[in-house]
Each structure stands twice: as C-alpha cells, then as structure tokens.
Amino acid sequence: RKISEKHDKVFVTGCQDPALETNQPRANAAFVVLARNKELEGVLQSLKSMERHFNRWFHYPYVFLNDGDFNSTFKDEVRKHVSSNVEFGKIDPSMWGFPDWVDHNVAKEGIRKQGDAAIMYGGMESYHHMCRFYSGFFYKHELLQKYDWYWRVEPEIKYFCDITYDPFVHMERNNKTYGFTIAVKELKETVPNIFRYASAYKRVKNITSTGLWDMFLEPKPEKPADELPKDDPKYKKPLPEDILRTEPGAGTIPDVDPESMEGETYNMCHFWSNFEIARLDWFRSKEYEDFFQMMDRSGGFWMERWGDAPIHSLAAGVLLDTHQVHYFRDIGYRHTTIAHCPANAKARQQPRPPYLEMTTTDEKKRIEEDAYWEEWDEEKENGVGCRCR
Ligand code: GDP
Ligand code: MN
C-alpha cells in the first residue's frame, strides 16, 4: 500500500545547474499563500526559505489571498522579500463563510460543541472557513484563473534542500496531477464521518477502486465482512443525526448504506496539504466539483472539522490513478512540528557528499549570492541541509 519508488521515481537526483535549468521554458504556475496580516513574520520566514532554496533561480510569481484586506506593511514587506511578481487578492464572501443554504445557527452551534469537546481547532469558526475555502474554492479565485499549476506555501514553513529542478515542468512531463512530501494520520475526532461520505460518492458514481484508494484503507479484518455480527460497529454504523440537511433539495447525499461499504475503514492517512504542488485543472474538473459539492452538502465542514488535507486526499483516492500522484521524497520540508528529511530517504542515500560542488556559468555571481544567502542559512544547525554549491 505504498506509492512505490518503482512507479514513481524521484525526478532528478543531485544538483542541477540552475542557469541551465532556467534556460528551459517555465510552467504556467504560481505560489499560493493564504494569510492574514498578523502572520507577516511567519510569511517572511517562508518566503526567505522558498527564495533561498528555489525561487531565486526560477522566479515563479506569488498570489497572496486573504478574506480581509492586506495592509500596506504586509504588501511592502512581501515585495521586498521575493524575486518575482506578486499579486494580492481579497476573497469574496461567496467563497468564505457560511453559504445561504446552511442554517447559520445550527452550524455555529455545531462548531461551539466541537470547541467544548476540545477538538483541535474545532471551536474556531475561521478555521472551518479556511478548510472549506482550500477544499472547494481557492482554485476558483480570479487571480488563479490564468494559472495551470500551483504550489502552496504557508507561514512558517522551511525547505532544507536546494531544489534545482523545476517540479512543475517535471510533473507535467511525467503526467502527474498531485504532489506531496508528507503524509500523516488525521485526528479521528476531526473527521468521524468524512470517509463514509467519500466512500458513498465513490459508490454512487460507480467508481472502481484504484491502487490509490486502497492507500486510505485500514487492512481488512481477518474475518470476511459477511461473517461479522450485524451489530459489529465496523460493519454497521448509523448515520449521525446531526449532519445538516436543512435546505430543501440539499439532500444530494443518499444515506450511506452500511451494507455497501464492504467493511472499508479509513486509516486516517492523508497528504499534508500545507505543501502541495498540483494541477489546478484537476480541482476545476467536474468530477472534483461533484465530489466537493457532495462533501459540502453533508455539513461536515461545520458539524465536524473536516480539513482540506483529508478532502484533497480522499478526492485523489477516488478520482486519481496512483501514477498521477508524485511523492517528492527528495524535498526537505518542515512545517511546525512535522518534517520530512530527505537524508533518511532512499533518494538521498546515494554515495555522494552532502554538499555537492557544482559549477555555475558565472562564478563571481555565485559567490556573491552565497554570501547573501548565508545570512539566512540555518541548515547546519540541524544537520539536514543539502545545498547545491
Ligand atoms: P495549521 O497549519 O493547520 O495549524 O493551520 P494554519 O493556522 O497555519 O492555517 C492554514 C493556512 O490558512 C495558513 O496559510 C494560514 O495563514 C491561513 N489561514 C488560517 N485561518 C485564516 C483566516 O481566518 N484568514 C486568512 N486570510 N487566512 C487564514
Ligand atoms: Mn500552518
């Protein structure tokens, strides 16, 4: 149940000469950063890392989005820290907050209850809106319309390794749709019913399992499902009563027939979406939109605290083939407490020194650049850095 290295190879091993790499045409892509003014410091930290390890060569543009207005300090500081074009956009209320078809009081009460139950971010209304925005709306924002690809950036992220090839171009060339670098398990209490809806979508649409869907399944119980007692919780779970079905006709979700679930259980695994490189046309496809609509209409973005990470992951599980997903096992990345360190990955276990010498076309420029970036260089402290120079 792995995305195997046999079928999904590291695109490029070792250091490329950025001068040669950037001679090639760039992809039609942008970084997407959702943020608030108060997160400026964390944003700048992320931008330094992004620029230092990748964008000082590739100069991909940034799109900043916010449900409020970015102030001039935020915009000025951001512009000072990047080597490419930046656009700042406001998110329309139609993409953020409660839609008309949901009973706001019921939803707020649902959120309040999750706060009382100490579910992580469960009681924070804005967090629910953020997750729903990243699940079903960001790719519809007008500033993203002109792009085919995006790379998600959050405040307080860090790249450990120089990325000297263009991930977009290589994904395109290899027919990849979705790329991740970390997969983790979700907190069960944030998504108690998410899998039943995703699985209902798959069944209603008659989608046959791909290898990817299986990645999200707990191994089958020893006994075949039909031998389980009918009251076994694995086999038969009533639908929660408090899932919203307020709008007349909103019930696009048929009740999940437990008999048809074939005893499948979600293993809580998901791609950690704060790092994500993906094709926007996948999110804009009818299939993804249908999937999102069905999930959305269940009310799970409020009555539970469904994150965009399990939403994107289960959508990929339903809609994508294993070969369309790329594991960036060579990208060193950290966000808050979780990191992926490629020093531990096969791709980095090649017999070669951690700091490769490479020749650039302009030696003097290289030395100047290195001196500049030394200022931001923290890699040595944890010993996982892998720089190309
Ligand atoms: P965590 O990584 O799951 O702990 O969640 P974060 O607090 O980092 O939020 C995820 C992303 O959404 C980050 O890029 C935040 O800056 C952004 N974000 C979260 N809540 C809001 C909000 O209410 N407004 C805006 N504009 N951005 C938000
Ligand atoms: Mn975050």
Automatic annotation (TrEMBL):
Q: Where is the active site?
A: E276 (nucleophile)
Per UniProt, the keywords (alphabetical) are: Glycosyltransferase, Membrane, Transferase, Transmembrane, Transmembrane helix
**Does the UniProt entry include the keyword Transferase?**
yes
Give the source's domain of life in one word.
Eukaryota
Single biological process term from Gene Ontology: protein N-linked glycosylation
Q: Which GO terms describe its molecular function?
A: alpha-1,2-mannosyltransferase activity
- Is Cytoplasm found in the keyword set? no
Q: Quote the cellular component terms of the Gene Ontology held in the record.
A: Golgi apparatus; membrane
Similarity remark:
Belongs to the glycosyltransferase 15 family.
Q: What is this protein called?
A: Glycosyltransferase family 15 protein
Which span of the parent protein is shown here? 92 to 480 of 512
